[in-house]
Structure formats: C-alpha cells, structure tokens
Amino acid sequence: MTVTSPQGFRASGVAAGLKSSGKQDVALVVNEGPQHVAAAVLTSNRVHAAPVAWTRQAVKDGVARAVVLNSGGANACTGPEGFADTHHTAEHVAAALTGAGQETGAGDVLVCSTGLIGIRLPMENLRKGVDDAVAALAADGGPDAALAIMTTDTVAKTTHVPGPGGAAWSVGGMAKGAGMLAPGLATMLCVLTTDASVDAGTADAALRAATRTTFDRVDSDGCMSTNDTVILLASGASGVSPTEAELAEAVRAACADLARQLVADAEGASHDIAITVRNASSEDAAVAVARAVSRSNLFKAAVFGNDPNWGRVLSAVGTVPEEVAPFDALALDVAINGVQVCRAGGVGEPRELVDLASAREVLVDIDLHAGDAEATIWTNDLTHDYVHENSAYAS
Amino acid sequence: MTVTSPQGFRASGVAAGLKSSGKQDVALVVNEGPQHVAAAVLTSNRVHAAPVAWTRQAVKDGVARAVVLNSGGANACTGPEGFADTHHTAEHVAAALTGAGQETGAGDVLVCSTGLIGIRLPMENLRKGVDDAVAALAADGGPDAALAIMTTDTVAKTTHVPGPGGAAWSVGGMAKGAGMLAPGLATMLCVLTTDASVDAGTADAALRAATRTTFDRVDSDGCMSTNDTVILLASGASGVSPTEAELAEAVRAACADLARQLVADAEGASHDIAITVRNASSEDAAVAVARAVSRSNLFKAAVFGNDPNWGRVLSAVGTVPEEVAPFDALALDVAINGVQVCRAGGVGEPRELVDLASAREVLVDIDLHAGDAEATIWTNDLTHDYVHENSAYAS
C-alpha cells in the first residue's frame, strides 16, 4: 500500500553504502505513464539543499519521469560542488533508465536527499546505487523504496487512498521524517503517486492545498529543514479523470495519513500532542496560536512529565500579537484531554483529573471566543530521548 | 553589592511559607528618598499576571516607595481574585510601612510575583511575611532580598555599578530567573536602585534602553513569561544629578551584568551560547537572525553533545524571511569559537578543530555580508537536565 499501489509505477530501494549502518539508502520511483505529470512543494528555507534547487527547476514544466532519493547525506550547504553532484545524479539516473529501455532526460528526474548537512555525497557509491536501483525496479518495489529513505525513523511510512466510491484510481505514498519537523515543511521527503489522469495545474493545486493543512501543521521541534520535498507523480494509467475536488481530497487524505505517521514516530517522543484552537477570528489566527503553543519547550517538557500544565499553555498563547490573533486573555478556556483545566483565563477543573501517564495522545483544546475559525497543529513532547538523539546524531 | 549598595534604600528577605522548602520567599525593597522616582518595564505577554497589571498602573505616575516581591507563586491566570490578592498585598505593605513610621500609600507599592501559574497565593502567609519583612528592613538587607526572590536559580544574582570617574552615585540591582527566559522579557524579576537624582522620564528612558539590549537579548528557551518585571528606583540620596548618558550607561551595565548571570545559571545548561550576527542590513535583522538560531532545539541539543553542528545554524538562519533580513545564502560565513566552519554557505575548516567539550562558552559568529549592523543573543544548550527540571517542576 505505497507508491507502487497505483498503476503505472515501479520502484526500488537498495543499499549503496551511504549509511554507515549498511542499510538501504537509495530509492527510485519511476512513472511509466502513459502520462508523466508532476508537481512538487519544497522547503521555504532560504538555505536549501542542492537537490531542492534542482527539483524546483526540473518540475517547473509539470513533467517528470522519475524521482531518485538518497538517505545518508542531505547534500545541503555543499556549495557549487554539491549542486554539480545533484545534477550528475539526475544525469546518471536518466542514462541508466534510458539504457534499460525507458527513454529519460536528466531534466525529468527529480532528486531528494536527506541526512547530515555540510557533507558531500560519496558519488561513486551513489552511482553504483543508482545502477542497482534501476536494475531492481519492480511493480511491487514500493516497500523497499520506503525503507531506503528512512533516517532516524523507526518505521517506514506508507499510505494508499482509493478514489471515491470504488473508483479505479487511487493515491499511494511514502514519507520519511522524524526530527526537524516544522512548517514549510516538516523535515521530510514524501513521494505521492496516482494513476488518475490529471493535468499539471490540477496536480499542483491539489498538492499545495493538501500540504497546507497536513504537513505544514506538523511541528515536532520548530526546526525547518533545508531539504523538505513533497512530490506528486501522476501516470494516468487508470484512464480515469477525477474531478479536481476528488483528486484534492484523495491527496489530502494521503498527506494527512503520512503526517500523522510522522508525528507518531518523532524522535524520542513519548506523547503526540494535538493543539486545536477554536473560535478564532481567522484560520491564520488559529494556526498562529496553536503554533506558539507547539513551540513551547516548557509545555512540551511538562507533557513529558505527564503534567497538564495549562499555565504554560496560556503563557505561550499570550505571546501571539493582538494584530495576528485578537482575543481577550480573560476569556480563554483550555481543556486537556477533555478536562476543562482553565476557564475564563483562570483556574478551572482540578488538573489532577487529567491522566497523561496512560495516554499517548494529548488533546489540547483552546477556545479563544473570538470568532468561528479553527485549526490543529500536531507536535510532540520534549523528552530525554529527543535531547539524546539530537546531541549524538552527528557523532 | 546589591539593591542596598546605593544610598537611601533598605531591604529584607524573609521566609513566609510560600515555598514548600521553607526558604526565604518574600522580599521588600524600600526607597527612603528624599526622591521616590520609579520606572518599570513589564512583560509584553498578553497573558500577564495580576502583579504585572498592578505595577503597570501603579508606576504610571513615575513614583514608588517600595517593591514587594514573592517567590513561591506567580499569581498568574488567577482571575479577579488574583488581582484582589495583589491589591490587598500592596495595601498591607503600605499599612505596615506607615505603621513603622514611613507614610506610604498602596499606589506607591509595586508588586512582583514568581512561581507556578494558575494557583492562588496563600494570603495569610503572605500578610505575615510582609509584616516580618517590614520589621527586618535593613540598610544591608540587599543580599537577603536577592535570596528571597529565587525560584529554580542556584545562586542569587546581584550587581553594583559605580557612576563614572568615582562619582558619588551608583546603581545596584538584583534579579532572579533561570527558566522561561525569552525576550520581552526573560522570565525574571529585577529591581535596580540608584541614589542618583533623576526625574521619572530620564529613569524610564534609561531603563527601556538598557533592557532592549540586555534582558531582551537573553533567550534561554524561547518561552516568554507572564510575570517579567524590571524596576528602577531612584532615591536622589547622593545629591548628584548625572547626565542622561551617564545614567543610561550605568543602568545598561547593571542590566548586562545581571543578564549574563541569568544565562550562566539557566536551568540545566552546560554551555552558554552567544550568537553574534554581524554585517547585517540593520540591527533588527541581526537580532532576528540571532534569535532564530537561539531557538533551534536541534542546534542547542548539538551543542550539549559538544557537536559544532554549523548545518543546524544555517538551517535556522534560512528560516528568517528575506524582508526581515536580506542576505545571500551562498555568502554566509559561520565561525564557532573562532574556527571558520562554514565559508560562503559551504564547508569551511574541519569541524573537528572546534573543541566544545572543554568550553562553557560557545561563540557563534555569523557573517551575513549584507550591511554593517550587529547584535548578539545569549542562549543555552538543550540538555537532559533542562528536560528533567521542566518536566518535574510542578510535581
């Protein structure tokens, strides 16, 4: 139930020696058509990796035949040489696919990388990996590809969303990401595939709408990556043309499923926290307030300690400027896992009624009493394991 | 070398049973004149504690005779009852001082509280503490007052800055704050005293200028408090009227000294990190870039692991919007403790040359090559002890 679930795709995942662990680290997803529509949403970080710069350019025409992804190195902050490495990787994939009978130009190969920043990729290993990946391409290769893009992920993340009412088309997907999860986008790579017949504009609109309310609302640690990439490939192999709304909903559902899986596997987390802000003056206001709470290290550490510390929620809410989110501080209500711990900006039900020790999910519900808009941001608690993984990651 | 170092002040610190530890928890600083000038800078958090609302109002006329401070309870998010508690505290201090021969109105008593949010203060204990504090007032009571405002601080923070060139006036001060340190202001209470003869406008301007470049540039954990208060009291007891510039510089030096002490004692920290951004297009741009780096949990966890992870510096720099801080990502230089680990957005000197294991101070120097403005933000690393202290604090 992954990128090879829709018709018209082959994929593979191989070990090329980029990871010191020897695990799979090069993935390839190939769209065999008949259509080769592509769209991508990329990190808004101004310090972006070479593959992001490449992919942004390569996807502009709305066409792509393949996506090559490597873990074991982000190829970010690697200068002109790093960009040349990405360019060369795309050329190597194109030549290998063409040699295998699938005529492909380098400009139709999208590239994604993930791993440490500031280190060049070992190109000899990567070339060999690409050759092996082309040879291993299979119609059931999706699970291998999903394994090969993992970094600190503990499980592979895949999804498959059928079209509405038993339609003959569907959306498949895979993603990686466990740390550096923050908006615009989370630190993640994601490839979605569909056998629906759609044009590039429709694919792009569906993907942008989907990421805005899914991946962009995961904020594991407030850190925006240099490499985030979400790609949608459409093969048209089902022969079915869904409506724009049908496509958008299937893509959104696939992104939402993968985003929830990212949160569940965030580095070192012991709780998944959903911060819902309701009765805001606008959706943007709701997002801003939820985002402020999702970035409070104090609140996140309290949740790790199973402490429903609503005072830390309110102190984070209060940092949002009035022009961004109008509200009356003396009207704020907060419920945690259904217990109304704060009422009208003051003490509500006893916090002892909230049992976080036996809950993985923490639902924080903030009522601004300032309108009727709503949004939810997902984050995680701040744990010893988060500190451990991120202080030891590079060593 | 504290609030009672300048002439015209008495202070005290007593144990009133607000802290379960039985340690000192009520402090009093009294300005005996002949002048009773006061200024205050207060948290910009929209969810602010009752004492902040009180002090904002009480200091408006530029006059105050006393500051009463309690640890062991923030009196934040406590509703109208919490505000009544603060009002009553000020009245009680005024009555006790008047009874002791120092005619004082409640409106000339500033109030500060620190501790847990969302819990009412035990007023009977506090009243008794105020009575004891008035009885204990002494011309050498500054050190006791500094002890009584501590929460998770491990050491008391005090300062004393003489006027220029052996002048007869000086600035003394005390502060508390160890967690929830972030701009506008850090989670902290600070009382400064001076025996200079100044008017309220000059005192206010000096205090605002000083906090802008000192306390506002400490960002221990990105969390803004509900209770931050910095107060300056001027007695005029020296009979000397310094120039505005002389006063401003002495107040700035006192704030800078206390701010550095706060960083050095931040909860669970093993490194103090100074992030200097130079050659920015404006001071605001430099602050925005430095602030973004200071809030990167990933970079701060790397520093805890003694890893000079400049890729995480760059990925944080890249999150600042271009309209806030123009720069070319391919021109960025980063040095860590003097080693140029990143040059022109790419790999510089080997990161192994940076020895963080034996350094408490980590100096991150970011050159934007976009102008000639500069700013420094101080922060700390993200450690197991930070997580521990903040997950166990309320329990």
TrEMBL record, chains A, B:
GO terms for biological process: L-arginine biosynthetic process; ornithine biosynthetic process. Pathway: Amino-acid biosynthesis; L-arginine biosynthesis; L-ornithine and N-acetyl-L-glutamate from L-glutamate and N(2)-acetyl-L-ornithine (cyclic): step 1/1; Amino-acid biosynthesis; L-arginine biosynthesis; N(2)-acetyl-L-ornithine from L-glutamate: step 1/4. It catalyses: N(2)-acetyl-L-ornithine + L-glutamate = N-acetyl-L-glutamate + L-ornithine; L-glutamate + acetyl-CoA = N-acetyl-L-glutamate + CoA + H(+). The keyword Acyltransferase applies. Its main location: cytoplasm. GO terms for molecular function: L-glutamate N-acetyltransferase activity; L-glutamate N-acetyltransferase activity, acting on acetyl-L-ornithine as donor. GO terms for cellular component: cytoplasm. The record marks 186-187 as: Cleavage. It is found in: Cytoplasm. The record marks 114-115 as: Involved in the stabilization of negative charge on the oxyanion by the formation of the oxyanion hole. Keywords: Acyltransferase, Amino-acid biosynthesis, Arginine biosynthesis, Autocatalytic cleavage, Cytoplasm, Multifunctional enzyme, Transferase. The active site is at residue 187. The keyword Amino-acid biosynthesis applies. Substrate binds at residues 151, 176, 187, 267, 390, 395. NCBIfam families: ArgJ (TIGR00120), PRK05388.1 (NF003802). Heterotetramer of two alpha and two beta chains. Belongs to the ArgJ family. PANTHER family: ARGININE BIOSYNTHESIS BIFUNCTIONAL PROTEIN ARGJ (PTHR23100), ARGININE BIOSYNTHESIS BIFUNCTIONAL PROTEIN ARGJ, MITOCHONDRIAL (PTHR23100:SF0). This is Arginine biosynthesis bifunctional protein ArgJ. It comes from Antribacter soli.
